[in-house]
Specification:
Length: 190
């Protein structure tokens, strides 16, 4: 009598006893499967169908995408200011005065960009959050120096011409560093 012994990877075994001569009898089977034998899960190569129940709310995002709001805030604050600086069609009083853009700077540029940056941070988008928060800070700083309450030029002395020259030289330093940061953002966004 010959015996065959089969073991599966999940701990099941089957012992098959075959007679040495050919007979019409069925072979004798003995299995070692018992309730005490631990069964490991088997993994099939066929894909499992998707569950019929909806995905739990914990794994789905709770907020919308804030990026379009931030981009609109940037465009609505930056485009009119650029037109005023260029003096197109008499905007800015032909001398680049941006006083009319203070509200757009504070609310569309600063506030909206910061809210968008916080929304991106909540959604886990660190780079987008960094860009929008830096731009929000830029618009807030640019708006603050145009508000008479802050008296940005007055801190440089009483002689108006010398104070304006010193103020513009100092403010240009800020703009130069913004001009250095923005290309890095552009390169890093790819």
């Amino acid at each position: 009598m010959s015996e065959l012994h089969f073991c599966s990877p999940d701990g099941l075994s089957l012992k098959l006893s075959l007679p040495s001569e050919s007979t019409d009898l069925a072979p004798e089977y003995r299995s070692t499967v018992s309730p005490q034998t631990p069964r490991k899960p088997t993994y099939s190569q066929t894909p499992t169908p998707l569950p019929s129940t909806p995905v739990s709310p914990a794994s789905s995002p709770r907020f919308g995408n804030p990026t379009p709001v931030g981009l609109c805030g940037f465009l609505l604050a930056n485009t009119p200011a650029t037109i005023m600086l260029l003096g197109w069609g008499g905007a800015g009083g032909n001398n680049g005065n941006q006083s009319a853009a203070i509200g757009a700077y504070f609310y569309l540029g600063c506030l909206l960009e910061i809210i968008c940056g916080i929304g991106e941070w909540i959604n886990g988008e660190t780079f987008n959050a960094t860009v929008f928060l830096v731009l929000g800070g830029y618009f807030g700083a640019s708006a603050a120096v145009m508000v008479p309450f802050y008296n940005a030029v007055g801190g440089y002395g009483t002689d108006v011409d010398a104070a304006e020259a010193a103020y513009y030289a100092s403010y240009a330093t800020f703009l130069i560093f913004m001009a250095v940061v923005l290309p890095f953002f552009t390169i890093a966004s790819r």
